[in-house]
Amino acid sequence: MCGIVGFVDPEARVQDPVAVLERMREALTHRGPDDAGSVHDAPLFAGHRRLSIVDTSPDGRQPFVERDSNGELEIVAWANGELYNHGDIRERIRGVWPELSLPASDCAVLPRLWRLERRGLPDALEGMFALAVWDARSEELLLARDPGGQKPLYYAETSGGGIAFASELKALLFHPGVERRIDPVALRRYLAFETLSGPSSIYQSVRRLGPGERLVWNRSGLHVERYAPMTPVGAPFRSLDESASALMEALEAATRSRLMADVPVGVWLSGGLDSAAIATLLKDEGVRAFSMGFTDPSFDEGPAAAAIARHLALSSQVFEVRETDLLDHVDTIVARMDEPFSDPSILPTSLLARETAQSVKVVLGGDGGDELLLGYPTFYAERWARLAARLPRVIRRDLFGAAARKLPVSDGYMGLDFKVKRFLMGLEHEPTRRHGVWVGAVDPTIHGDALAPHWSAQAQDDALFEHLDGLARRVRDARPDAPWIERLATIYMETYLADGVLAKVDRASMAHGLEVRAPFLDRRVREVCARIPLAHKLKGSRTKRVLRHALVGRLPKDALERPKRGFGVPLASWLRGPLAGWMDEVLSEERIEAQGLLNPRWVRGLVEEHRRGSDNHRKELWSVLMLSCWYSGPYGPDAGG
């Protein structure tokens, strides 16, 4: 696990390119605190920061370079991630070059794999990765990202037909060809979805490579395409027992492969089913479990996690977090933000990563289970939404809306008033779009009031939802026979999971030099889940039915019956209490006016309604707080000079 940077400067327009590369590379030191490497061979400048996990010796230093007999550069390869099938790839390489000796690092296979596969290289990999390969002979650059979207990769076209790229946007900002002009569509997408969704970054000059995409650059230009097909729907399993058995068999194989490391490995254990399923497969491996508890009982999963660890006889550690610990951590999180990101669970995730990294360098987690096995309540809410959407709009909006406004305002986890209002908000949008609204923050129908006039006029609704609409069409074409809910879950995989959950985990863990691996995102698990019938995943409001069935006898009954819980924090009460002063400062009318992104009167109305308890605006307020903090921070538009 590491950080990669690089640029190709075909017309030598970058002044002092070695110094530029070093600044870009060192911006990612947190991702790879153990070692660093670079290659300077114009027009290529390549950099790497290393977190040593597989082959911790100096032989594992990247980039990996191959030269011809005259010492001329031929191939450079460097990556952020883990290649779990590198053993199989080594066997292929030995069959062609039996005398070749490669370093033990999993990524050391990349230069020779390029010789074998060229642009097809990422298709041959099983793992989580963002990688780069440079062929000096043809002056061709390949960038690729794993199909699950576990590792990020940003890129920017530069003057003279060049390209720059990095694991995090902040590193690209040290390249002189990258400008800090805000993308108005990305701004609306952030407000709507809590994070940046699709290929856009917050800056017009920077793009994001999508899950399962590859980019090929040469002197003729660059081309981006999807190399990983949608997981095909295979022959369905006939019984719940058959589905459960196949799921656990695939999950066990995926978990075993993710124990590949020359350093200690642990598991993140919440009170939920997905991480518990991983933990059941690790109970005889001697790994430690790490969990987090809260002082607020409505958000505290520490006791449930500890009970599961005891049941499995796992050595475990629960970090008890006080309110003040998280509040003190806000400034640290904000200072690292190179893009606005408003999922507040990054706070406890980051704290958990910081504490876990004191003991291990690698943990396994349960990310992906909710998308593959229909674990979110929004999946069964969709059935009710389709019925409610048939009612006249005046009934939905006025009658139901009036009833919702009379519900008592709750600050607890997923209070009734919050769920009802979110549900009604989504009804104003067609099905694909409403799920983005349900899990997002600021209702798109009020963006005209929320944004300053200059910005609200620049991005219409069709542009806001363009990525979601296009993805829905692609999923429909790839899986025409799949039930609508299954197609919807695939959209969640590439949006809510890749752009939100995995982005959060990557930012929080890599800030502390910790690697998080997700067995549920293994290709074998995805293929099995595509064969599990809908009724085995979701029946009424019973989510992840097949996983609950598979874990009978492995976990206590109360763990199997616990409802879905997110990794939340008590934001609503904090913004009325210990965070109120900070909120007033960050969202002051003068500051919002000076930044010029939001309508100060709309922001003031949110603050006042939330403070007096007439509404719970925690999602909207946290989004605008993070936007304001990012804007004024070291990676915001004004910091670029």
Short overview:
The protein has 29 helices and 17 strands.
Characterization of this structure:
The chain has 29 helices and 17 strands. The chain is α+β, with helices and mostly antiparallel strands and 641 residues long. The protein folds into three domains: 2-192 and 201-226, Glutamine Phosphoribosylpyrophosphate, subunit 1, domain 1, CATH 3.60.20.10; 240-367 and 509-561, Rossmann fold (3-Layer(aba) Sandwich), CATH 3.40.50; 377-485 and 569-640, no CATH class. The model has no long low-confidence stretch (mean pLDDT 91).
List keywords for this structure.
single chain, 641 residues, alpha+beta, Glutamine Phosphoribosylpyrophosphate, subunit 1, domain 1, Rossmann fold, six-stranded antiparallel sheet, 17 strands, 15% strand
Largest sheet: 6 strands, antiparallel
Mean pLDDT: 91
Runs in which pLDDT lies below 50 for 5 or more consecutive residues are none
State the CATH topology of the largest domain: Glutamine Phosphoribosylpyrophosphate, subunit 1, domain 1
How do the strands of the widest beta sheet line up side by side?
2-3-1-9-8-10
The CATH superfamily of the largest domain is known as Aminohydrolase, N-terminal nucleophile (Ntn) domain
Helix content: 40-55%
Briefly, what CATH class of the largest domain?
Alpha Beta
How many helix segments?
Answer: 29
Structural class per helix/strand content?
Answer: alpha+beta
Gross CATH architecture of the largest domain = 4-Layer Sandwich
Shape: globular
Strand content: 15-25%
Radius of gyration: 24 Å
Task: Give me the count of strands.
Answer: 17
